[in-house]
Design a protein that fits this description.
alpha/beta, eight-stranded mixed β-sheet, four-stranded mixed β-sheet, 38% helix
């Protein structure tokens, strides 16, 4: 495929943007190629600046559950923009989206909106520390809860250890307040909670930032029981799974009520929006009703709220049944394409990952053992065939309601060819 315009833009971008991009994964260095510059999207397809079309399985990393430029979302944003793009004041739509979320998620009685999942997760940690009077936070290795300093800590250890800085600029003191344990490992969780009085345990209920790795049977139930016994707050990061895997997120899918919920992506319908939700007794601690300070000039931005509301209102029972059926069809097609190859596939409604591994992936250590070179060859071959998979082994494929049986079958056929090319 011709990419002369993308190459030209990348040459300009590296002069004015770090690495030529505004978020690292867009650089496509994981698959050893320069980034694609996108001009527009429509339905399940994106078009780059050179006129190439791709079936899009990234969908802006999850928010576009309805696909690109969905008419209801576009009209809602257009109408909101015509009234003004930002006020720095309260609006009716903020109340409406909070009511929609409260109705969908039983564990959420109140909502505080932010502009990003990073902000919402940071607020969750601050609130948990204020509510418990404790400092330590427990998280899982390979889990990403935004780029706030403490939550970047990742020990890489097989047992519970104090975190060490995972990025220059993160201090040892900030990292030391985070304890990192392996996903799906009850013994490590128990040890961490026994050795440290933790304010909170943060978990993606379905891990999706090491690739999609579902919880082992009974693991979420164990987390709920273990944290409740120790008066540690259980925080579910549902930035990816919220309103995607079911109407009420992964907590509805598994029947587990956390103490706090971090939401993002789908709640903004493709515009910058996220939120922290939970019971009134906890959320009421946030300023101005309480003493825990959190604020944001663009929190609850009218355009983002309009897009989020329009998206959520399209997501009824029929929509989720359709999304589940599409995901199952894609998984079946990829499994058939991957037959007899050293590959694993894990997923949940609306998202999945094809792991380049001959062993089951159950945590970040096993995800990290994947054949990244073969994955890179596969991605490049898929792009050559007009299919846009996530350019990282540690990300999810996102299914949207704009995908259909034809695009799924085309993707599976391309995957079969690309896998043969990747494995020689």
């Amino acid at each position: 495929m011709c990419d002369s315009r993308s190459s030209e833009l990348y040459g300009r971008a590296v002069e004015v943007l770090p690495g030529g991009v505004n978020s690292p994964v867009r650089a496509m260095r994981q698959i050893d190629r320069d980034p694609i510059f996108v001009e527009r999207g429509e339905g399940a397809t994106i078009y780059d600046v050179d006129g190439n079309a791709y079936v899009d399985w990234v969908c802006s990393w999850g928010p576009l559950i309805l696909g690109h430029a969905h008419p209801a979302v576009v009209e809602a944003v257009r109408a909101a923009a015509a009234r003004g793009t930002s006020y720095g004041a309260a609006t009716e739509a903020e109340v409406e989206i909070a009511e929609e979320v409260v109705e969908r998620i039983p564990s959420v009685e109140m909502l505080r909106m932010t502009s990003s999942g990073t902000e919402a997760a940071m607020a969750a940690v601050r609130l948990a520390r204020a509510a418990t009077g404790r400092e330590i936070v427990v998280k899982f290795s390979g889990a990403y809860h935004g780029h706030s300093d403490g939550l970047l800590a990742d020990s890489g250890s097989g047992m519970a250890t104090l975190g060490v800085p995972a990025s220059p600029g993160v201090t040892e003191a900030q990292a030391a307040a985070t304890v990192v344990v392996p996903w799906n490992n009850r013994e490590a969780v128990q040890r961490a909670l026994d050795e440290h009085e933790a304010a909170a345990l943060l978990a993606e209920p379905i891990a999706a930032n090491m690739g999609v790795v579902p919880p082992a049977e009974g693991f979420l139930e164990y987390l709920r029981e273990a944290t409740r016994e120790r008066e540690t707050l259980l925080v579910f990061d549902e930035v990816i799974t919220g309103f995607r895997v079911s109407r009420g997120g992964a907590q509805e899918l598994y029947g587990i009520d956390p103490d706090l919920t971090v939401l993002g992506k789908v709640i903004g319908g493709g515009l910058p929006a996220a939120a922290l939700g939970g019971p009134s007794a906890l959320l009421g601690r946030l300023a101005p009703s309480g003493d825990v300070y959190q604020a944001g000039t663009l929190s609850g931005n009218p355009l983002a709220v309009a897009a989020g509301l329009a998206t959520l209102r399209e997501l009824d029972a029929d929509a989720y049944a359709r999304l589940g059926a599409l995901t199952d069809r894609l998984a079946a097609g990829l499994r058939e394409a991957a037959a007899d190859l050293p590959l694993q596939l894990d997923g949940a409604p609306g998202l999945l990952t094809l792991f380049f591994s001959d062993e089951p992936v159950v945590d970040f250590a096993t995800a990290s053992a994947c054949d990244l070179e073969a994955h890179a060859r596969f991605c490049r071959a898929m792009l050559d065939r007009g299919i846009y998979p996530p350019p990282s082994q540690f990300e999810a494929w996102f299914v949207s309601l704009a995908h259909d049986e034809e695009t799924i079958d085309r993707t599976a056929e391309a995957a079969g060819e690309a896998l043969r090319e990747a494995f020689g």
